[in-house]
Amino acid sequence: MIGRAVVVVMDSCGAGAAPDASKYGDEGSDTLGHVARAVGGLHLPNFEAAGLGNLHGDLAGVPPVGEPTMAFGKMSEASAGKDSTTGHWEIAGLVTDEPFATFTDTGFPEELVEAVEHDAGVEFIGNRAASGTVIIEELGEEHLRTGRPILYTSADSVFQIAAHKDVVPLEELYRICRIARRHCDRYRIGRVIARPFEGPPGGFRRTYERKDFAMEPDGPTLLDHASAAGLDTFGVGKIEDLFAGRGLSATVHTEGDADGLARTLEAMRERPRPGIVFTNLVDLDMLYGHREDPHGYASGLAIIDRHLPALVEALGPDDLLFVTADHGNDPTDGSTDHTREYVPLLVAGGSAAGVDLGVRSQFGDVAATIAEGFGLPPLGGTSFLAEVL
Prior knowledge:
Elements: E1 4-10, H1 31-38, H2 45-50, H3 52-56, E2 71-75, H4 84-91, H5 110-120, E3 125-129, H6 132-146, E4 150-153, E5 158-164, H7 170-184, E6 191-198, E7 205-206, E8 211-214, H8 222-228, E9 232-236, H9 239-242, E10 250-252, H10 257-270, E11 275-281, H11 283-289, H12 294-313, E12 319-324, E13 343-348, E14 356-360, H13 365-374, H14 385-388
Parallel strand pairs: 1-11, 1-12, 2-14, 3-4, 5-6, 9-10, 9-11
Antiparallel strand pairs: 2-13, 4-5, 6-7, 6-8, 12-13
């Protein structure tokens, strides 16, 4: 049995093109590898010691080591999709067979937009696929002048609503998004996302008050089983949003990855045991991957690297730490969209150090391992508990 499982998801930290990347137009994608080359080599001493170079194999500045301090491997995704919702659900043991709907080419159907506008009492501008920062710059002044929220999407299944905080207060923006969520369910749209921004024209900046309104998982997850068994389940960052609040004892939202890591460490020290701490670190994706910024991406990785020893040191003798990702977002591929990639798998605690976990066929192996460790009902996937504990 284990006392606590800590799962840290480095949002978008892909580790090379998945076997089926060509189906998604992502041949040759490699978030970690291409970031490393673009910046002339990464400096990640703690990840290097853990075995990040061992699982990737071609990571400039992060070579393989002879005696890794953590178990290492990588996982491919079994679910249909390459977004945060499917990735996190699969990490929690739920494989999504039917992909969420996307509207990249056409924008959202008129009947959907009109239904949301009618019930929310608003009129949108936009309704097309775009980079969030770009469309805010393009339509921000019109939004300020008219008060009409900006509606846009991407290659992912997202219904995104952007509004300036001085024009549409946060709670009003969240209200509009909750109404949109109800209508988006029948179109199988994965997430409705509130995208508040502030500042003057030419200096617009998005804030950390973003909120995701996801579809409820359409099957049981690790969090559901853990909660039903009386375990403490604590979500850090946008975990609450991605699971529609289900299966969680308590949650905390964060302002950046340094804050998310600090909140994770705090939870490890203070939350009841036995239990699960489930953390999403969003900056790699939101700030750097979607903005095609490999240098920023490298700096974001360095922040996580600096916090890694404290997380490992906070583990109890029967605790396990899992560090992984939910998809890729190669910031050098000329696209602002997610990429279909392997994700890294690093595990600390028990006797994990130096164990080669190989290439796993689904993210759900993490959930299977944790479920076995807590004696919970199986969720699919293949447990590697015996290899690390």
